[in-house]
Amino acid sequence: SSTMSLSEAEVQSARGAWEKIYVDAEDNGTTVLVRMFTEHPDTKSYFTHFKGMDSAEEMKESDQVRGHGKKVFSAINNMVQHLDNSEAFLGIVTPLGKKHATQLKIDPKNFRIICDIILQLMEEKFGGECKASFEKVTNEICTHLNNIYKEEGW
């Protein structure tokens, strides 16, 4: 049985939408992070090596920002591949959530911020339909992450 609220058709269209943006994982991941750091500067405080960077240009060129952008996109890609298998999906989301809650102590609202920026970028690049078909996936991811945070006492 699946804890996921996505139908098979929704899973397929979400995967199609994600593939478009994942083709350029490093560039698009970097764009998402740079936007987050620029529009929500408090999020930079979690990344000691990004703290001193003020210009978007400087961030875009940073190997650390690029590396983390790619990492974020790889993690989401992993989740997207397992949307039709809730056990496998949770096997990816759970350790990630625990690590961010306990070791990194990242405020869970930042997951929503990053997901919203991904949706925004999808809409800009590929249109509203692309964004719409991925929206449920981001809700799913954020819901599960928030549940893990609650279990960890947030």
UniProtKB/TrEMBL annotation:
Its EC number is 1.15.1.1. It is an enzyme of class 1 (oxidoreductase). Coiled coil: none annotated. InterPro entries: Globin (IPR000971), Globin-like_sf (IPR009050), Globin/Proto (IPR012292), Globin_lamprey/hagfish (IPR013314). It comes from the Eukaryota. It catalyses: Fe(III)-heme b-[protein] + nitric oxide + H2O = Fe(II)-heme b-[protein] + nitrite + 2 H(+); 2 superoxide + 2 H(+) = H2O2 + O2; Fe(II)-heme b-[protein] + nitric oxide + O2 = Fe(III)-heme b-[protein] + nitrate; H2O2 + AH2 = A + 2 H2O. Pfam families: Globin. GO terms for molecular function: heme binding; iron ion binding; oxygen binding; oxygen carrier activity; superoxide dismutase activity. Keywords: Heme, Iron, Metal-binding, Oxygen transport, Transport. Residues 5-150 form the Globin domain. Involved in oxygen transport from the lung to the various peripheral tissues. Belongs to the globin family. This is superoxide dismutase. It comes from Erpornis zantholeuca. The gene is Cygb1.
